[in-house]
TrEMBL record:
SUPFAM superfamilies: NAD(P)-linked oxidoreductase. It comes from Actinomyces lilanjuaniae. Residues 12-309 form the NADP-dependent oxidoreductase domain. Pfam families: Aldo_ket_red. InterPro entries: AKR, AKR_Detox_Biosynth, Aldo/ket_reductase_CS, NAD(P)_OxRdtase_dom_sf, NADP_OxRdtase_dom. This is Aldo/keto reductase. PANTHER family: NADH-SPECIFIC METHYLGLYOXAL REDUCTASE-RELATED (PTHR43364), OXIDOREDUCTASE-RELATED (PTHR43364:SF6). The lineage of its organism: Bacteria, Bacillati, Actinomycetota, Actinomycetes, Actinomycetales. Gene3D superfamilies: NADP-dependent oxidoreductase domain (3.20.20.100).
Length: 315
């Protein structure tokens, strides 16, 4: 399976940067980034809004941490950097002037002249699509952005963006970042879903929340009260049919001598249209659990079992 997005070699697994500067401090984040690249990882995904939701944070923290790492390691040419625009407080939305300013600020925090992949993080229905498409093309043509991506867009709006880009003579988006994992498939799979629309336009799928906010790592137990930063996110998964998915992940992981997280990522990595899932890791232990997904190969029966138990867990 190809791990190319246009001319970008992103590898089979990316690293989500939402935890950097939030649940992972700068030193820990740098250690995670070092280990990810040492293992062969290339794609680092962030957003200007990360981590505005944390007390005392304003957004931009993740980009700043990645920027300090890039500067100290001198490794900009060895990695693929993706970031997004539309959620940072004070930089919300996709109006052209806002997008231009947001990118300049992102580049400053990242300490780089360009980003490889620049996403519209969330749709902005208040800004005419022609204006948003045009400003992304302006930034791409200037060299500050190599390629354009979309995240959290509906199939209908993806189609509209692509048609608008074609009509205006702008480059089409090359990547789509959807919410997709063993417990959350309906928005991507099936007739008219994000996967079908992306495939019809040659867009790579780079799923976020590939481990269902940590539930698919196996760290949650039946009957256990959840705590921590992501407790609210996993509350909807505390059902027997979801735990059954984790049981199968654990069994397959034991067979391969890897953690359940690596199995979940390998299943997702091999789904039609997927180029690279985007798990995050707030420490080296979490990273070690997911790194085998760079190369882990599931056989047909293992993949079938996971798909079957996943089918039963779809809410």
């Amino acid at each position: 399976m190809s791990h190319m997005i246009a001319d970008l070699d992103v590898g089979p697994l990316g690293l989500g940067g939402n935890v950097f500067g939030w649940t992972a401090d700068e030193a820990t984040s740098h250690a995670v980034l070092d280990a990810f690249v040492a293992a062969g990882g290339r794609l680092i995904d962030t957003a200007d809004g990360y981590s505005y939701w944390a007390p005392g944070h304003v957004g931009g923290e993740s980009e700043s941490v990645i920027g300090s790492w890039l500067e100290s390691r001198g490794c900009r040419d060895d990695v693929v950097i993706a970031t997004k625009v539309s959620t940072k407080p004070g930089r919300e939305g996709l109006a052209p002037a806002n997008v231009r300013q947001a990118l300049e600020e992102s580049l400053e925090r990242l300490g780089t002249d360009f980003v490889d992949l620049y996403y519209a993080h969330f749709d902005d229905p208040d800004t005419p699509l022609e204006e948003t498409v045009s400003v992304f093309e302006e930034l791409r043509s200037s060299g500050m952005v190599r390629h354009v991506g979309l995240s959290n867009y509906t199939p209908q709006r993806i189609e509209q963006w692509v048609r608008t880009a074609s009509r205006l003579g702008c480059a089409a988006p090359v990547a789509l970042q959807p919410h997709y994992n063993l417990l959350h498939r309906s928005e991507v799979e099936g007739v008219g879903g994000r996967g079908e629309v992306a495939a019809s336009h040659g867009m790579a799928l780079l799923p976020y929340f590939p481990l269902a906010a940590g539930f698919l790592t196996g760290k949650y137990r039946r009957g256990q009260v959840t705590h921590g930063d992501r407790a609210a996110m996993v509350s909807g998964y505390l059902r027997e049919d979801c735990f059954a998915v984790v049981d199968v992940l654990t069994d397959i992981g034991d067979r391969h001598k890897v953690e359940p997280a690596a199995v979940a990522l390998a299943w997702l990595r091999d789904r039609p249209g997927v180029t690279a899932p985007l798990p995050s890791a707030r420490n080296l232990d979490q990273l070690r659990a997911i790194l085998p997904a760079l190369s882990l190969q599931l056989d047909e029966e293992e993949a079938r079992l996971l798909t079957q138990v996943s089918d039963a867990a779809q809410a």
